[in-house]
């Protein structure tokens, strides 16, 4: 039973610290204030233990449990005119996010793309009492099946300058470029809740270390810490909860009243320095075992289905030898595919594979069929040493292969030297990308460089740089 208690304590504290920069003692008080049927005695015992543990290993605790997620899609797809991603990452923000990117991957005309990312069900769930749990992807906080679905909308704010080879094309004024839908078919990277405990809560190493920690705590903690001090805390909490001011206050007000009642209670003397050091080492060792469980979650498989609808960013210009009338837009494009990710624990590496197929929404004269292209991509993302308070930088190497089944715009267009743009064939590219985190991983700055043998409209090799700024706005929700 004691193992279960300390395991629950460690998991609860760890998840709270992972998702936000909040003192674990404050978090316990907030949880107590939000609990409709709290048990002051249980709270007091855990509070007494946590107060000592925080003093023993707070710095190591923060270093071990920094926010380390690196599987959130930063921005638009590789087919956008502004993108930093040759290969899509498997997940979107749990609630809401946005990004701004400049520099194309496979397009011939570069631009600046703003992408909005939203999970409608997650947004609705976050309007309830526990938005923080929704942001942490807790299955218990949002049990709606359709939370697996997310949407992105991309807008090209600048069509970019054209090369001479594209003199017969006009950039369109409409900024909308792409709408996509994602659905998480398989997602075992859930960091909280019963599902987490069921799949990862029985790791023998962690249970053994947790039991050792319980034994050490029993021998190290002064009896007064778990008897007299706990009784005083429990009595103070019970008295405050019985007042009319507490009953009528909101969650934040209740937490303030509890804090005001608990803070004046002086704890008993802590153990001597050597005992504290021993407890600290064992606490950190236990957290290390727990981190392996967290790594197991972050390396669990994810399979996401993706569908997108794209509008072209060009139209025919007024040229004497144009094959199609001026102002004609190419057909819109539908794309469907799968994104699969699987981590390798020992290498701190996440492997991601994409496979997509695209087709035009109509078959025009001269087109053999609606099928446009097939794309297959693969990337390896290495998690670098975490920056405490910022997140984990990542270094990604990716390759993308595209087979153009027919002319990329789906109709005859005249370009340089009166040559028709009908280059079918193969596009291969290699990308290196560095993503820098900030704000507990709520902000990521991707910088990538891409080499390709050609682009969609121009059969010439390209070396390009892309940069972006991505915001995971889940962090804006009030964690209570």
Explain this structure.
By secondary structure, the protein is an alpha+beta fold. The protein folds into two domains: 2-65 and 194-294, no CATH class; 96-188 and 300-476, Porin. The chain is 32% helix and 28% strand. The protein contains twelve helices and 14 strands. It has helices spanning 2-19, 24-34, 40-64, 120-126, 131-135, 193-200, 204-220, 223-226, 228-241, 244-248, 251-262, 273-298, and strands spanning 96-102, 112-118, 149-158, 169-171, 176-187, 302-310, 314-316, 333-344, 349-360, 371-383, 394-404, 425-438, 443-452, 462-472. The protein has a twelve-stranded antiparallel β-barrel. A hairpin with a 4-residue loop joins β8 (333-344) and β9. α3 (40-64) packs across α12 (273-298), α7 packs antiparallel against α12 (273-298) and α9 packs antiparallel against α11 (251-262). The longest helix is centred in the middle third of the chain and has 26 residues, at 273-298. It is elongated. Mean pLDDT is 75; it is low at 1-22, 56-66, 319-323 and 414-419.
